[in-house]
Amino acid sequence: MIAGIGVDIVDVPRFGRQLEKTPKLRDRLFTDVERDLPLRSLAARFAAKEAIAKALGAPSGMNWQDCSIIKDASGDPQIHLIGSVQEESERRGITSWHLTMSHDGDMAIAMVIAEKL
Fold this sequence. Notes:
This protein has about 120 residues and is α+β, with helices and mostly antiparallel strands. The chain has 4 helices and 5 strands, in the order E-H-H-H-E-E-H-E-E. About 35% of the residues lie in helices and about 30% in strands.
């Protein structure tokens, strides 16, 4: 059963300007495994994190560092949760997540589906 969905779109050049304007933003938004990725990949991961928050109802107190978008062995994006985001996911009974990300030109988009049994 679908417990939540979320979608977000990011203007890549605008996102890049924000990262340049506020250098600590990169550290606040992304985990160690994400930080050094190309700008388009960072924008897509930020969209994914926003979509995850939306699928969870955007509760307060969630930490960006508690959600990481990693690639599995075949290169597909996977959601890795810890801490506050994992706790909220468990509280809502989420048993699996589905994620798709894409970027084209100046735009990056992500969509997630949260499922529970």
